[in-house]
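Journal club prep, shared notes

We agreed each person brings one worked example of a sequence with its structure written out as tokens. Mine is Nucleotide-binding universal stress protein, UspA family. I'm keeping it raw so we can talk through how to read the token line rather than staring at a rendered picture. Sequence first:
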Amino acid sequence: MYRKILITTDGSAVSNKTACAGVDFAEQMGAEVLALFVAPEYQYPIYVEIIPPSYPSEEEYRAAMQRAGQGHLQAIVEAAERRGLRCAGATAFAESVALKIVEVAAERHCDLIFMGSHGRSGWGQLLLGSVTNKVLSHSKIPVLVHRLIKEPQGHENAT
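Then the structure, token by token:
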């Protein structure tokens, strides 16, 4: 039914559990996986007139976020490969995480977006997380929203 599934992660324990469920779902479908981490765009400090020497340059920031993204995506890619699934990981930069998820899904010809009901903002929200809500309202392809029954303990790797 689905040939290529985009699985999102923000690196949180909740997101890792959701990614694990996404890989399981992809295995059931025999689908290829695209794991995606979206980092915020670089922000210049607007509260000072001179950028402090300790403030990272845009290049340093992007390199650090690429490394962080690789770390967040590695477990998903490895879990998919252990199950014999084709998988790629990608880190993208955007002001709007939700719009970037939708954009990448379209550009990479995904036919499903698999994501959690909540990410870093966690369990404090009663309704869907804001990123998930925006993806649902902007996506032209199906979005499967995974909701965990209980909050994960600690920050262990779920996949």
